[in-house]
Specification:
heterodimer, A: alpha/beta, eight-stranded mixed β-barrel, four-stranded antiparallel sheet, 20 helices, 14% strand, elongated, B: alpha/beta, 39% helix
């Protein structure tokens, strides 16, 4: 073997890289029976690698290191390198004792949901035969640009939620509300995208961005349980405010009301069984406003009996149920159709398209069980999402990419858009905050969903049919 | 009626049910769940109105009344053709009609009826969480837990020794002969924690704050079982945990000291909502736990849950099914939903009759209460 690393490196590595280089130098002097294994956490795609990935992987590698006189080196880029002896007799894997040669398969299984391509996850080198390549890997670590250190995930605390609750209790509610129009995409690949859009519903949510301007929010929403508790407080404020607004003619939601577009609300079960919901339902019945209610499957499974009760309240109110909160993993281990929802919202992730074949098959099965005609692909933030969705028979979408397409169509048809950027038009249409919307010179068009049938009223001549995107 | 302390009343009710079963005395029983009144009827005066509404039963023959925890009330009487029950249910309907427009409450949510002695076991199941001894003069828990109280509890428990709150339940294997212990379930008795640290609070009133609190229970439990000598003589056992806890440093420390003899003999009990809080993290935690020889169990499975959650796809080893009147009346409805890949564990088996029923239904594992 020719890769004996006796030469001067020409630079002075530091920290773990320094330790690894020293250890590798020693190992490569007597490479027989030695093995190196790199776990490339740096190759996982966001949101991975998360702190628990590194913590658990390191514990597993440490375990092997202890049994096979080795050592683990956590590199600055997040990768972990194990240097150890090759086991003398192979083939026997005892529970909890992974031999270094069995590790790549064990790690591939462990990271199955996060690493679609197992070949990219680990690299193993038998030092006797592949010492050169291992050395090349190490030297490359010294010269590569270091990624920005990922922010450590902060655990939510009770006090952070208390501070947020205070913000929500005292703020002017519309300033905290965001809205987004979901669309149905008509077939016709050769037609421009804007001529294929029809509005489906408009979802109203609390805007984390708006709340974050008033109070640090990361901690509170990083804990699913504190967040669900907090969400019930949000429900109460939203229900109260929307009901009052509707009672007074629906100033906030006029755009959707005029187009007979259903308004979707994300509610907790606590919100649905609250008096605030009953009041909104009664007012909706009186005014003819249409609503749909989105419930996360996590909420539904936490208390199936309360879910059944909540479902009856929705039926009585005439509000369709929409199941929300399914990601590419949750999709394959649930049966949202069991709730007989009008729609099921699946969150776009590149994993939907690039997962390993068995996972992909499970995803396709899940879509077939739900029925693609009932699926809304949300967080569709790229053309890739639309391409995947259409290939899987999905016609309903929601996400920034479509917000931008709609905004571009508005700007093209707007008489007062000369100074507006696409981003401004998207963000003004995406909020209920009067302060932000006031910057738009053509609010009638701002709220107009694409291809709406009703005439659009320009600002000054309400009777006149306004521009319409084609 | 004698003013017994609450736990004494639960004991007295147990005794009466036992006698009724032994003697085969026909009785009717009504359980009023004031804790299940909808939030719109959540004020203290609603609780009072609900209790008053069944007052007509007190005049029935041999009527006896028992106060249970969480504002629940049991009345047992001999039915002699009177219309006390109809009067009570009508009064209750009037109260429920006070709900804001659009809300309905199914009667089964507030009231359960039992024919004794046949259905005594089901009523006994309702007493399962009445075990904790209440101190004389204990404060009645009336206020729901709130976020500030959660913060204080987390603070107090963060370094506390929880061993005095830890309880055991045995899961039995029903073989041909006498049942043999399969494993012990260790858990933190939440009601006892509350009775000690915040006696005036209903600790489960906000389900999400309660779930959050269980993370602290998890960590303290793991710290306890990882203590020196703690597992030296331990047999197979199970812990109720959250997914996030399996990936926490406390679990790694526990895993490092787990004796080799217990490797493969520890079951981790999870709930579906926690799994669905972050399914990708669950699959990672599951794969990790598997690689270290742990088994995984789904708690609180019901027909409604199984119609939404795919136990087979989640690759769980065991599935815990609560013995309920609905299930006992129609065992096939739930059986059809059971995945072939997971072994059921029947819980809430509180009487010999329930045990026989479990055996007849070919349950291999039951949790005796």
């Amino acid at each position: 073997m020719s890769g004996s690393p006796s030469t001067n490196l020409g630079f002075s590595p530091s920290g773990a890289e320094r330790l690894l280089t020293d250890a590798a130098e020693r190992a490569l002097r007597a490479p027989r029976g030695k093995l190196a294994l790199a776990l490339h956490l740096s190759r996982l795609k966001p949101p991975a690698p998360r702190p628990h990935h590194a913590r658990i992987a390191r514990a597993l590698l440490q375990d092997t290191a202890q049994r096979y006189s080795g050592q683990v080196f956590p590199l600055r880029n997040g990768d972990l390198v194990l240097l150890c002896a090759v086991p003398p007799a192979e083939g026997r894997v005892v529970a909890g004792q992974s031999s270094p040669t069995a590790l790549p398969a064990a790690l591939a299984r462990l990271f199955g949901a996060d690493a679609p391509d197992n070949d990219l996850l680990t690299t193993a080198w038998k030092l006797e035969e592949e010492g050169d390549r291992f050395w090349t890997f190490i030297t490359a670590r010294h010269t590569e640009a270091q990624p920005e250190s990922a922010a450590e995930e902060t655990a939510g605390t009770a006090s952070s939620v208390m501070a947020l609750e205070e913000v929500v209790a005292t703020a002017f509610v519309p300033d905290l509300l965001a809205q987004q129009t979901a669309i149905r995409l008509h077939p016709g690949r050769n037609l421009p995208l804007t001529s294929r859009l029809a509005p489906l519903f408009r979802e109203i949510t609390f805007s984390f961005a708006a709340m974050a301007q008033r109070q640090a929010i990361g901690e509170a929403v990083s804990d699913p349980y504190l967040f669900r508790h907090f969400a019930a407080r949000l429900d109460a404020r939203m229900l109260e405010h929307l009901q009052e607004d509707l009672q007074q003619g629906g100033k906030l939601t006029r755009g959707a009301l005029r187009q007979n577009l259903p308004l979707h609300l994300n509610l907790t079960l606590e919100g649905i069984v609250s008096p605030g919901f009953a009041r909104l339902a009664a007012t909706a019945q009186r005014t003819g406003a249409r609503f749909g209610v989105e419930i996360s499957l996590m909420e539904a499974t936490a208390d199936p009996a309360l879910m059944e009760y909540g479902r009856r309240l929705l039926d009585m109110a005439g509000f369709p149920l929409i199941v929300d909160g399914l990601d590419y993993v949750g999709l394959t281990m649930t049966h949202p159709a069991g709730l007989k929802p009008a729609l099921v919202k699946v969150s776009w992730s590149p994993r939907l398209a690039d997962s390993a074949p068995p996972v992909k098959a499970a995803i396709e099965d899940a879509i077939a069980r739900i029925g693609p005609e009932r699926i809304v692909l949300q967080r569709a933030e790229s053309e890739e999402a639309l391409v995947w969705g259409q290939a899987n028979g999905i016609a309903r979408y929601q996400g920034y990419y479509l917000d931008a397409v709609q905004a571009a169509a508005r700007i093209a048809n707007c008489h007062s858009a000369r100074a507006c950027t696409l981003r401004q038009c998207v963000s003004r249409a995406g909020t209920l905050s009067p302060a932000i919307r006031a910057a738009c010179g053509n609010p009638g068009l701002l709220d107009m969903a694409p291809h709406a049938r009703e005439p659009v009223a320009p600002v000054k001549t309400p009777a006149h049919a306004g521009p319409r995107p084609h | 009626m004698l003013a017994l302390a609450r736990t004494d009343q639960a004991d007295a009710l147990r005794e009466l049910l036992r006698k009724t079963e032994l003697a085969g005395t026909p009785r009717r029983a009504l359980l009023l769940h004031t804790d299940r009144l909808p939030p719109a009827l959540g004020k203290p005066h609603h609780q009072r109105l609900a209790r008053d509404s069944i007052a007509s039963l007190a005049s029935a023959d041999r009527a006896q009344q028992f106060e249970l925890s969480r504002g629940r009330l049991v009345v047992i009487w001999r039915h002699r053709g009177g219309n006390e029950l109809e009067t009570a249910l009508a009064a209750l309907s009037l109260l429920l009609a006070d709900l804001p427009e659009g809300q309905i409450v199914p009667p089964g949510q507030i009231v359960s009826l039992y024919d004794l002695p046949e259905q005594g076991a089901w009523l006994l199941d309702e007493l399962a969480d009445e075990s904790g001894p209440t101190l004389p003069g204990a404060v009645e828990a009336t206020r729901p837990i709130d976020i500030a109280m959660l913060g204080r509890l987390e603070q107090t428990l963060s370094q506390a020794d929880v061993s005095r709150f830890v309880r055991w339940r045995t899961v039995l294997r029903l073989a041909d002969g006498a049942p043999v212990p399969a494993w012990e379930e260790r858990y933190v008795a939440a009601h006892d924690v509350a009775a000690t640290l915040c006696p005036d609070r209903r600790i489960k009133a906000d389900p999400w704050l309660f779930r959050r609190l269980t993370r602290t229970f998890d960590r303290r439990m793991l710290a306890m079982v990882a203590g020196p000598q703690e597992l030296r003589d331990s047999g197979p056992f199970a812990l109720n945990l959250n997914v996030a806890t399996i990936l926490a440093p406390e679990f790694l420390r526990f895993d490092a000291v787990l004796p080799g003899t217990l490797r493969g003999a520890v079951t981790l009990n999870l709930i579906a909502a926690d799994i669905l809080a972050d399914p990708a993290t669950y699959t990672f935690a599951r794969n990790f736990a598997r690689s270290r020889g742990y088994r995984l169990l789904l708690r609180h499975a019901s027909a409604a849950l199984l119609s939404l959650f795919d136990v087979g796809a989640a690759e769980l080893d065991y599935i815990q099914i609560d013995y309920t009147p609905e299930f006992a009346a129609d065992p096939d409805s739930l059986r059809l939903l059971l995945p072939p890949t997971a072994t059921p564990v029947l819980t809430g088996v509180a009487t010999q009759a329930a045990m026989e029923w479990a055996r007849a239904q070919r349950f291999a594992l039951v949790r005796a209460e």
